[in-house]
Write a structure and sequence with these properties.
542 residues; mainly alpha; Cytochrome C Oxidase, Chain A; Cytochrome c oxidase subunit 1; metal-binding; oxidoreductase activity; copper; Cyt_c_oxase_su1_dom
């Protein structure tokens, strides 16, 4: 007996199943298979981890407020620096961008959901035990790992049981990342609406497609490095132990072969968000769309051949230093193409500066500064002096805090009305922006001078000559931290509770893309019938 089919050729009971809204109660979240719910959980999880990592950062800055040991012994201080890095990278930035991908990619390409809905659920829930393992390591014998977020041997071979918990947590997070990446690749390649060719996709979908390939390429490399560390610790191998013929520098090569593409995994989706926002508020098409796609691909490819610029001080031959120096400088070219295209998009545009645009312009300013200091550090003779000083800390915080985080804030203010169905308060958004920008620069700009003067990273104490800049940086850090609490209480919570002006389907006049064709808030099920697109693949016909 043949099944009864509905108008779309599906079994009729399926049509009925899909017609209703979300499951009520806790089951909606625990068993979530809807991309929007999973995206929301990723974003809330990453904000929680941002707060935990932020508290660790404030502990670090409280200790460095004055010379001498104030609150923590050096061992605990090193645990704070290590766990701050691990939690921020693997617990905050990466899951937040996956949350954005879950929410926006199906909406932008006209797909009904992500390709593998149950795997999507699994990849999120893996993060919870991993995060608990990481955070609970503080309470294990000997305390949390204290080897730096890079987990260099031989320190990792000497740590207590918390090191094993950290390795296990990173394996789980890596598995989650790989599953998320597979899901995004299959969704983008197989589930686009008819008429949306790859070269008509929004740049956010492009940057995430390329990021997903990077994740699949490099997460197994990290898994290999930490597995070798584990076997060195417990099973008598000597991969990184010189006493048994191993080589600690080999660990650095393997780690940074993962670690440098990882930096771009944390910034490419940000480029996609900024590429959506600047054209919307300049009310112009993005300048040089094709070159943006190729620039993103070029950055991803080049990211694999620059890893040893983190290792100029390991006794590398001059020829090797020259290769990695020139390869690193080369990455500035496609990055410069992106900056040029964003500025060209704004040129003579009818620009308005609502909060998403403020954060996007703030991103351009601070990310460019981080890029220039990166170019300086790419030069081997300069890096030999600045290696492991606060100049490096300033550089990568300008790229990651200002780059990734500001882009995420821009994305939240831009797409938040579509998610929640209400507008945020423009005044509160502006307070959040100006407070974050000013306090961020008060925190990290002085670190350039500290680094140039020779203050090393990861030290709990320092000579009196570094006191003034450290005091300024610590004051800025507390201000920056409070601004993010303000953001959650003044913007995120009211929007989640539906308090605010009702958002229209398209709150931004210049915005383009399929996500603005659905009502606000976006219904639980969207695009069950693939939309018919116009020639630009940005509007639904009929």
């Amino acid at each position: 007996m043949s099944a009864v089919l509905d108008a779309h050729g599906r079994p009729a009971h399926d049509a009925h199943d899909h017609a209703h809204g979300p499951t009520p109660g806790w089951r909606r979240w625990v068993y979530a298979t809807n991309h929007k719910d999973i995206g929301t959980m990723y974003l809330l999880f990453s904000f929680t981890m941002l707060m935990i990592g932020g508290v660790l950062a404030l502990c670090i800055r409280a200790e460095l407020f004055k010379p001498g040991l104030q609150f923590f012994n050096p061992e605990l201080f090193n645990q704070f620096t290590t766990m701050h890095g691990l939690i921020m990278v693997f617990g905050a930035i990466m899951p937040a961008f996956v949350g954005f991908a879950n929410w926006m990619i199906p909406l932008q390409i006209g797909a009904s959901d992500m390709a593998f809905a149950r795997m999507n659920n699994f990849s999120f829930w893996l993060l919870i035990p991993a995060a608990l393992l990481l955070v609970s390591s503080f309470f294990m014998p000997g305390g949390a790992p204290a080897a730096g977020w890079t987990l260099y041997a031989p320190l990792t071979l000497q740590m207590g049981p918390a090191m094993d918990a950290g390795i296990f947590a990173m394996h789980i997070m890596g598995a989650s990342s790989i599953m998320g990446a597979i899901n995004i690749i299959v969704t983008v390649l197989n589930m686009r609406a008819p008429g949306m060719t790859l070269m008509k996709m929004p740049l956010f979908a492009w940057t995430w497609l390329i990021t997903a390939y990077l994740l699949i390429a490099v997460m197994p490399v990290l898994a290999g490095a930490i597995t070798m560390t584990l076997t060195d610790r417990h099973f008598g191998t000597s991969f990184f132990n010189p006493a048994g013929g191993g080589d600690p520098v080999m660990y650095q090569h393997i780690f940074w072969f993962f670690g440098h593409p990882e930096v771009y995994i944390m910034i490419l989706p940000a480029f996609g968000i900024i590429s959506a926002i600047i054209p919307a508020f300049a009310r112009k098409k993005l300048f040089g769309y094709t070159s943006m796609v190729y620039a993103t691909g070029s950055i991803a490819i080049l990211s694999f051949i620059v890893w040893a610029h983190h290792m100029y001080t390991t006794g590398m031959p001059v020829t090797g230093q020259l290769f990695f120096m020139y390869a690193t400088m080369l990455i500035a070219v496609p990055t410069g193409v992106k900056i040029f295209n964003w500025v060209a998009t704004m040129w003579r545009g009818s620009m308005t500066f609502e909060t998403p645009m403020l954060f996007a312009v703030g991103f351009l300013f601070v990310f460019s500064m981080g890029g220039f200091t990166g170019l300086i550090l790419s030069m081997a003779p300069v890096d030999l002096q600045l290696q492991d000083t606060y100049y490096v800390v300033a550089h990568f915080h300008y790229v990651l805090v200002a780059g990734s985080l500001f882009a995420m804030f821009a994305g939240y203010y831009y797409w938040g009305p579509k998610w929640t169905g209400v507008m945020y308060s423009e005044t509160r958004g502006r307070i959040h922006f100006w407070g974050s920008l000013i306090f961020f620069n008060i925190t990290f700009f002085p670190m350039h001078f500290l680094g140039l003067a020779g203050m090393p990273r990861r030290y709990a104490d320092y000579p009196m000559q570094f006191a003034d800049f450290n005091e300024i940086a610590s004051i800025g850090a507390f201000g920056f931290g409070f601004m993010q609490v303000y953001f959650f209480l003044a913007t995120v919570l009211p929007m989640m509770r539906g308090r605010g002006e009702p958002a229209p389907a398209k709150p931004w006049e210049g915005a383009e893309g399929l996500e603005w064709e659905v009502p606000s808030p976006a219904p639980h099920h969207t695009f069950e019938t693939p939309p018919k697109l116009d020639e630009t693949a940005t509007r639904v016909v009929g």
